[in-house]
Design brief:
Layout: H1 3-6, H2 23-47, E1 51-57, H3 63-78, H4 83-87, E2 90-97, H5 103-123, E3 131-137, E4 150-156, H6 186-210, E5 211-222, H7 233-251, H8 257-261, H9 272-280, E6 285-295, H10 308-335, H11 340-357, E7 364-373
Parallel strand pairs: 1-2, 1-4, 2-3, 4-5
Antiparallel strand pairs: 5-7, 6-7
The chain binds S-adenosylmethionine.
Length: 374
């Protein structure tokens, strides 16, 4: 599979779609909202551009994409200190993702979004700034915008996706694992680390060319608290259980062993120290803030039970649906789509029993970097 051409979250809005299974990512946006608001306010204060270009990288589609847009409009509108400049300010949003992203889904919901936004501000006696929304398809590991043209870059839960499966990670090096698992050789973990380093430095180089001096960037990604690359909390557990599901299908003769051995998910969860060190390689960027958050990792909606076996089952099902929405395009292109239902049924079962037996609650770690271009 060619990642930058074919990888995508599951399209549409049916039960397996990303739009219906992105509550964890929504929680990440809500958790990091104060940092985004602060960065937008500080960027307006320092630059007060008449026409502002704001980009969401790896925007995907669904309610989360427009939640970011709405948060920025609200922050700018409520930013009373610069009322005169802001009243004349216009915003150009660019929503970026890979070409296979369901951009139509976003544009089909824009009309309703605009109506609701207008109503929301009118009720509060506020006038939102004029804003325009466009898509920019392409990999964020390439140049996407003209030099010195972007005032604010945002990205949530996207930059941990690598540009490719680690270079030089060949067929049988990570036997029985789909990510860095307990039986992964250290050399393979190092290849993952090297690929992230290469990709993240490239990402920062591209953005530094595109962002205006004193422009701001807020990047949130799945990371890890531990220094140990083998321990990314609940993310590691999720991928271990996905590997276990595939090993079961190998044992049942449904999947060839070589197929499993040669499948690796192109994702990497860095630590705060790793991120700091990589940003330091780039002498045009200053870290204004970096924060680590732990989320309980439950992807259920609020109406579901919170205790007991029914809750464990609900967490198992919703985690399985969330993982499927994010990884189905990768799994289907490698193994074919006939194994999907069975694989994720197994995953639900394993994850439910993990939740039932969980003594110490594991968390999903996210890290938010607030950067300023010097
Ligand atoms: C988990 S989703 C997060 C989406 C959204 N920001 C949210 O919070 O719901 C990750 C997104 O990153 C996109 N992505 C991954 N690699 C990318 C790349 N190289 N360039 C642009 N987008 C990428 C994926 O296509 C996917 O839509």
């Amino acid at each position: 599979m060619k990642i930058d051409r074919d990888f995508h979250m599951m399209k549409g809005d049916d039960e397996f779609s990303y739009a219906e299974n992105s509550r964890i990512q929504r929680r990440a946006i809500l958790t990091t909202r104060p940092m985004v608001e602060k960065a937008v306010r500080e960027m307006c204060r320092d630059l007060h551009p008449q026409s502002m270009t704001i980009v969401d990288l790896g925007c995907s589609f669904g309610a989360n994409t427009l939640l970011f847009v709405s948060d920025v409009i609200t922050t700018i509108c409520e930013n009373g200190n610069n009322a005169i400049e802001e009243s004349a300010m216009e915003i150009q949003f660019f929503l970026n993702d890979l070409p296979s992203n369901d951009f139509n889904h976003i544009f089909q919901s824009l009309e309703q979004f605009e109506q609701l936004t207008k109503q929301h501000f009118t009720c509060r006696g506020l006038q939102p700034p004029p804003y325009y929304v466009a898509a920019m398809a392409g990999s964020f590991y390439t140049r996407l915008f003209p030099s010195n043209s972007v005032h604010f870059f945002h990205s949530s839960m996207s930059v941990m996706w690598l540009s490719q499966v680690p270079e030089n990670l060949d067929g049988s090096m990570n036997k029985g694992n789909v990510y860095i698992g307990a039986t992964t050789p250290p050399m393979v973990a190092k290849l993952y680390q090297d690929q992230f380093e290469k990709d993240f430095l490239q990402f920062l180089r591209m953005r530094c060319k595109e962002i205006v001096p004193r422009g701001r960037m807020v990047l949130t990604l799945v990371g890890r608290r531990s220094k140990d690359v083998f321990d990314a909390g609940r993310t590691t557990i999720g991928f271990e259980l996905l590997s276990q599901g595939l090993r079961t299908l190998v044992a049942e003769g449904r999947v060839e062993k070589e197929k499993l051995d040669s499948f690796n998910i192109p994702i990497y969860c860095p630590s705060v120290d790793e991120l700091k060190q990589l940003v330091c390689h780039n002498d045009l960027l200053d870290i204004s803030d970096i924060q680590l958050f732990e989320m309980d990792g439950n992807c259920m909606d609020d109406s579901e039970p919170v205790e007991g076996p029914a809750a464990a089952q609900a967490i198992g099902q919703s985690t399985s649906a969330a993982l499927r929405a994010a990884t189905e395009s990768l799994i289907a292109s490698h193994f074919g789509d006939s194994i999907l239902d069975e694989l994720f049924t197994l995953f639900t079962r394993y994850f439910t029993s993990y939740i039932e037996s969980e003594v110490e609650k594991s968390a999903i770690t996210i890290i938010t970097l607030y950067l300023q271009r010097l």
